[in-house]
Amino acid sequence: MKYKHIFGPVPSRRLGISLGIDPIPFKTCTYNCVYCECGATTNLTTDRKEYIPGKDIIAELKDYLDRNPKLDYLTFSGSGEPTLNIGIGKIINFLKENYPQYKIAILTNGSLLYQKEVRDEIIKADLIMPSLDAVSGTIFKQINRAHRGLEIQTIISGLIEFRKIFKGKVWLEVFIAPGINDTEEELKLLRDTIIRIDPDHVQINSLDRPGTESWVKPINNISLKKVISYFKGLPVEIIANFESREKIASFDYNIEERIIATIRRRPCTAEDLSETLGIHINETNKYLQSLLERKKVESQNLERGIFFKIKIRES
User: Fold this and answer.
1) Tens of pLDDT along the chain (315 residues)?
2) First-residue to last-residue Cα distance in the chain
3) Residue 139: beta bridge partners?
4) How far, in Å, are 94, 107, 129 from residue 122 at the CA level?
């Protein structure tokens, strides 16, 4: 079977060997984050529907999981916000009933957790990884550029309510955009709100490969220390400090070499590579990030998007 809606396993820094489940068409989301590595949202929406039939996703999962692969997580992620698909609960129930040996993770921006039906649909997952980048409305709009029907305080209330009933783990991700949400005022608001949410871990993230907007920059060590000082006493982890992807068992050097061979002929966007090589955009991004970190490739922001090319070695 040729898979359209599952991908990987991908080498995930946080999740180890992770099989991706993508229940949403590219790029359908409730946010249009300035830092998203998948690029700008083309369908900004809060409408929940069965974007991709659950039976199609279940058929692919059955075909793959019947082989009893070694996996750390089955992870809902991909081209947008996975909780937009109203079939997510049915898929989770199928997995729990038929493949209970696998843990389920959901990468979500958390924007729809204020809806009881969404909370109920994902309650059987083992790990939820929501994001919270801002508490004040102006900063929230500047970073996440959410659908006009979403308000940050409603989203925060949803996160708090979900935490009260969820028996699994919650790893809350905070993306730091220097000069925007690293002010004293915003960091205090984030700290107070995180205490109310009470996650198991707070994972600090920053730009490690080009995002949607070129003006978003990586965090420097001074800003990082400032952030950590405000979150003192909380269970904070720095994503950049996690194990390198190439050390994870699912890292596929064949995929890396195919990417290198393609961009050696001509610079490509992540979308170009994904289409040319038949690799899911999320998987492509994982390998590009690793190549950037090891300075094997470099990026250039052009009119059509972010292009990747072989890094010219200095003599």
Assistant:
1) 678 899 888 777 788 888 999 999 988 999 999 998 777 899 999 999 999 999 999 999 999 999 999 999 999 987 799 999 999 999 999 999 999 999 999 999 999 999 999 999 999 999 999 999 999 999 999 999 999 999 999 999 999 999 999 999 999 999 999 889 999 999 999 999 999 999 999 999 888 766 778 788 888 877 888 888 999 899 998 876 555 555 556 677 788 888 888 888 788 888 888 778 778 777 788 788 788 877 888 877 766 677 888 876 644
2) 48
3) none
4) 12, 11, 12
Q: Model-level pTM greater than 0.70?
A: yes
Q: Is the CB of residue 119 less than 8 Å from the CB of residue 80?
A: no
Domains in the chain, CATH or no CATH each = 6-247 (3.20.20.70), 252-315 (1.10.10.10)
Closest CA to 191 of 129, 140, 182: 182
Place of tokens 């002929």: 265
The alpha helices in 135-251, defined as continuous H runs, are 137-144, 152-165, 184-197, 221-230
CB 166 within 8 A of CB 123: yes
Length, in residues, of the chain: 315
Q: How many CB atoms within 10 Å of residue 128?
A: 26
Residue 193 C-beta-side C-alpha neighbours within 13 Å: 23
Nearest to 13 by CA among 169, 252, 209, 240: 240
